[in-house]
Design goal:
This protein has 5 helices and no strands. By secondary structure, it is mainly alpha-helical.
């Protein structure tokens, strides 16, 4: 039995030394307790869950907007165009030229000193820029 102890005791000591060194050199968790670590993990999961909910809500809102608003916008746009055509009385002919009645109306406004009104009316009828409308009214 003495021979067994002489062999096993040094073997246990030699196995215990590397274990003790490994335990001593094992990195510590820098003072964070298990409760604090759990709270941090919970905060990360909560943030991820909140971001997923926001993303889902934005996607749902986009789907609702896409399904309702385009038809409303198209309907309003067509109504506005119809009102503009009716108000101008067919000022622009299909070829892109101005009707004679509209040209006479612009001429009378320009000659009576209401050039700004004439420019505004021309821009509404033709959707032209300000410089083009001003040059046209100045040439009348």
């Amino acid at each position: 039995m003495g021979d067994v102890l002489i062999v096993i005791l040094p073997a246990l000591i030699l196995a215990g030394i590397p274990w003790a060194v490994a335990a001593a050199l094992k990195p510590r968790n820098l003072g964070i307790s298990d409760a604090e670590r759990y709270q941090l993990e919970l905060a990360v999961r909560s943030r991820a869950h909140y971001e997923a909910q926001v993303k889902a809500a934005l996607a749902a809102r986009a789907r609702v907007d896409a399904s309702t608003r385009p038809s409303q916008n198209e309907q309003q746009h067509s109504q506005q165009q119809e009102h503009a055509r009716a108000a101008l009385g067919g000022a622009v002919l299909p070829g892109g030229q101005l009707s004679p009645q509209f040209t006479l109306q612009l001429q009378s406004l320009a000659r009576s000193g209401h050039k700004l009104q004439a420019i505004k009316l021309l821009r509404q009828a033709t959707h032209s820029d300000l410089l083009t409308a001003k040059n046209y009214i100045d040439r009348l």
